[in-house]
Structures are given as C-alpha cells and as structure tokens.
Design goal:
2 copies of one chain form a homodimer. Helix content of chain A is 33%, strand content 21%. Chain A is built from 9 helices and 10 strands. In chain A, the strands form 2 sheets. Chain A has a 6-stranded parallel sheet, sandwiched between helices. In chain A, β2, α2 and β3 form a beta-alpha-beta unit. At the A-B interface, β5, α5 and α6 of A face β5, α5 and α6 of B. β5 of chain A pairs antiparallel with β5 of chain B, so a sheet runs across the interface.
Chain lengths: 301, 301
C-alpha cells in the first residue's frame, strides 16, 4: 500500500467500519463496543491520548486504519507532578471528537476520573531504570503515572495493538518494556514524529507558546540537527556534541535546558563509543512550557 | 449443586474436559491451549500456586471444577526477601503434576524463569497501603513481587476467573484491589482455609516443621480462637485481646511473634470500635519457619 501523507484527511479512505463514531464514558460501554467489533472479526486498535489532538495524533489514528480504532481521551492526573501543568493542560473534548470523527476513528473513550481511578484505588505500575534517566529526574513519578494509566486502558479496551508517538521516545520505550515484562497480550506500534513546517515537533503544549516563544522553540530541533550533523560527520565525543547543542539553546537566554543527551536508543544508557542505534534527545523550558524532541540515528558499528 | 468435601478426590467428578492433562512450560503453549479451550466455549480458570501442593490447593482446583482449569506452578523469586526461604522452598513438580491430574486440572503451566522474567525485565506492579501492614513490614517487597507475578500470569493465561486461598488473607485483598484498580478483565474467587485435623492451616511450609515444632505450631490457631471467643463474648478492647493472643504464643519460649492483629477486614486498618467484618490475623516464627493464619468474624454493628 502506498503510504499516505501523515495527517492528510483528504485522501481516499475505505468505508467507515461503523455507521457513526460513538463517544462513550464508561469501561462497560467501551468493552461492549469492542466486543461487538471483535465479533465482527475486526482487529482492535487503541490510540491513547490526553486530547488536544493535533496532526501527530491524527497520524496514529491513520496508521491504525485497518482496525476498529478506539481513541481514548483522558488527561491522566497521576502523570503530572504537583508543580506541573495538569490544571491548565488544554481540554478540548468537542473539537477532539470532531477530529477523531474526521480521521475515521470508530470509538472515542472519554472516561470520568472514577472509571480510571475507582474509589480506594492504590495500585501502581512501576517502570524500572528506563524511567530514571532523560525526563525521569525532572518529572518524578511521571512514568509511573503513564504506565499505570496505560495498563488500565489496555485492560479496559483489550486492544490487539496500541499506537504511540516517537515524540515521547522514552515513554515509547518504557511502554514497550512494560508490555514485554508483564506479558501483556498486545502489540505496540510507534509512529514517527509529526512536525510543523519549520520542524517543531507537534505537541499539545505548543498551544501554550506566545508567538515569540513559538519562534524561539525551534532551537531544540536545531540543536538536534547540530548533533546529527556532528555525528554523521564522524563526531565521537558525546560531551563535545551535547556542548554544541547547549550552545544552540544558549542563544536564547530565557530558555532553560532540562537535558540534552546522546544515549543508546535501546536502553537509554550513555554510550562509551557512539555506534549503532542512538537517540539524541532533549527537553527545554520555554517560559512555563516544557518541550521535548528527539531523533534516532543509526551509526556504523 | 451439593457442595463436596474440600480436597476430597474420591467424590464423583464430571468427565474430564480434555483427554489428558497437559504440562507446558512456555507462554505460547499455555496461550494456545487456553485459546483452544475458549473456542470450545469453556470458561478459563487459573489457580496460581508455588507448587508443593496440599489439600488447600486441591480445594481451589476443586472449586473451579466447571471451568478449564489451569494450575500454574512457579516459585516466584521476587516475592522472597534476601534472607527468606526461596532456596529451600519445596520444589516437588512431579508430585504436583500428579496431584493436579488427580484433582482434574486441565493444564499445568510450569514456566522457566525466563518466561516470567524475560531478559532486561524491570517493570513491577506496586500495591498501595494495603501492603504496608500485617505481613508487609516483615516482608519488604513481598507483595510487590506477588502483584507482579500474578499480573504476568493473568496476562499470559487470560483467565475469566482466578482462585486464591483465604489463608493468605492480605494477599487476597491486595490482589482483589489490583484487579479493580487496573481494570483487569477477570473475577477473583477466594476459597476458605483448609486445615489439618487439629486445625493447623495447610501450608507448603508446614513440611519444614520438625515433629516438635509441628506440635507447637498449633498455638497460632489456638490464639485466633482465644481472640474469637473474647470477641463473640463482647470483648471490645483490641489491645487486651491481642495481649491474650500473645499469652497463648508465649507459652512456647522459642516461638517468635511477627504480629497478632485485629483489623478491619475490608482495609486492614486498626479499628476504633470492633464492629462489622473483622480480620484476626497472625504470623509467627517456629524455628526458621514462618507461619500465618487468620479468621474472619462478623460482629454486630
């Protein structure tokens, strides 16, 4: 099949698998709808989101086009730290449902808190050392919150496959690890980062940026390219490369770096020698807004 | 249906649901076998065990008699502390398979470590405050190990129902909580404690007891009865009751008490006033062997 442009809604699409996209709020409803779809022989795909949908999310819905597509929309409180942006995180459920409908989703699952965190709840899924690096130290508890909510969504929807974006590279790796470790009966698909025309990675948090901050935010992507260029030119000193990345960000005095790192793409560990599949990743704070981005590069061994 | 005596293998049994009981070692094999049973319309029951099967386990297999019965046998390393009895825990797989066969199990799943803990594994399921009391402080990490292995087994076998014994009262409550919290798609059945003729709760660890220790071990059950008698006679002071329990154990100078507690059976918290469903629970150490037992009592509110 010829790949279609990511996020392009105008292309020809097979007939809708259901008469109309349902929007449901309870675990029982989503299970009934999924069971009906499965009995019709359909593969079940889950696209977990926190809403505020953009072309990155649409690319995930699009990638799942052959399946019965369940999009969950839930701003998960346990993955936000006490000083983070849970309260102001964009909540645009009506617009999100319209996006899902247009993208061809079959079901939107927009649960109330009590469906996901029932009274008295206390169990958590705890990731291992993969969560201790990159974003981990800057967002204590974040990946535990992610693993917990994703495990719940997997158990509620029971999909055959779930789609996540490569923009959250560490999250993708941690979820893949969780699925293997806990023998969860589904596949994980990771889809490429979708970018604005100037290269800025699509993010629901981009909406927070003032026009000035928006213009400056691209420096993270530029820093990734600086690293990529140095690496493809044979650069082999991670410290020197991340220093060059920092210099790119430092052109903007008011942008704070959380980290700029070059790590093994398989385990997120620092590399003795730069070879094989490596992840160049960074997180910056532009005003109050935290942005992340990354690139994967395959170097000769 | 008339209830049959627990652990009685001589009673009439419906025809075996499969020609012969299979013993498998891999996740793929157990999934294939379960999928075949499900396609025949059978309910799938899982009885998770660490082997060294006794009449308590048999009562669980028996309780699941209407289902396709999968017995897992796996001595889970992560639920033992570094100073505990993992190395010497009884491993009697051949005898266990014979017990399962006689009890009418359809499938024994006896996995290698690498099936349950694949290379690089690091994810854990972490229970909440329910794990911080009773056995929790004496066995750090134990219930996290239990939740983790049980979650894995649930994901591998994907049963409709899983059976556990009331002997491990705290474990039963924590697993019920985990299933609700993570929206796991199965039911949990808790079966009554099965006891030796003198009242000692069946336990794989009873095999460790010398004849002298075996005779003394019954003091824990006697202590539970002392508490029960005081409570049913209107005793309302938990401190006085647990002191009376301690006095029973103290008759044996070489038996150490881990705890003797009277708690709310729903949340394991100490009770201001003794009313409703309460759990009397204790753990003692007889020689190197740790034994637990409990009773549930319903008091007028």
């Amino acid at each position: 099949m010829k790949p279609r442009p990511v996020g392009d809604l105008s292309s020809t699409r097979p007939p809708s698998k259901t008469a109309a996209m349902d929007v449901v709020a309870t675990n029982a409803q989503v299970r009934a709808s999924v069971a009906a779809a499965r009995s019709r022989g359909l593969t079940i795909a889950l696209i977990p989101t926190m809403g505020a949908l953009h072309a990155g999310h649409i690319s995930l819905i699009d990638a799942a086009r052959d399946a019965f597509r369940v999009v969950s929309i839930y701003v998960n409180p346990t993955q936000f730290g006490p000083t983070e942006d849970f309260a102001r995180y964009p909540r645009t459920i009506d617009a999100d449902c319209a996006v899902c409908r247009q993208a061809g989703a079959d079901l939107v699952f927009a649960p109330a808190d009590s469906e996901i965190y029932p009274p008295g709840e206390q169990t958590r899924v705890r990731p291992g050392p993969l969560a201790d690096t990159l974003c981990g130290p800057f967002r204590p508890g974040h990946f535990e919150g992610v693993c917990t909510v994703v495990a719940k969504l997997f158990n509620i929807v029971q999909p055959d496959v779930a789609y996540f974006g490569q923009k959250d590279a560490q999250q993708a790796l941690i979820i893949r690890r969780m699925v293997i470790d806990l023998a969860m009966p589904l596949c994980i698909e990771i889809c490429p980062i979708v970018r604005e025309p100037d290269g800025l990675a699509m993010s629901s948090r981009n909406a927070f940026l003032t026009p000035e901050d928006r213009a400056r935010a691209i420096c993270l992507y530029r820093a990734l390219w600086v690293a990529r260029d140095m690496l493809t030119a044979g650069g082999s000193n991670p410290g020197r490369i991340t220093a060059a990345m920092r210099a790119v960000i430092a052109e903007h005095a008011d942008i704070k770096v959380d980290y700029l790192s070059i790590v093994d793409a398989a385990n997120l560990r620092p590399m003795e020698s730069l070879a094989g599949k490596i992840l160049i990743a960074g997180a910056i704070r532009v005003g109050k807004t935290r942005l992340i981005d990354n690139m994967i590069l395959e170097l000769p061994r």
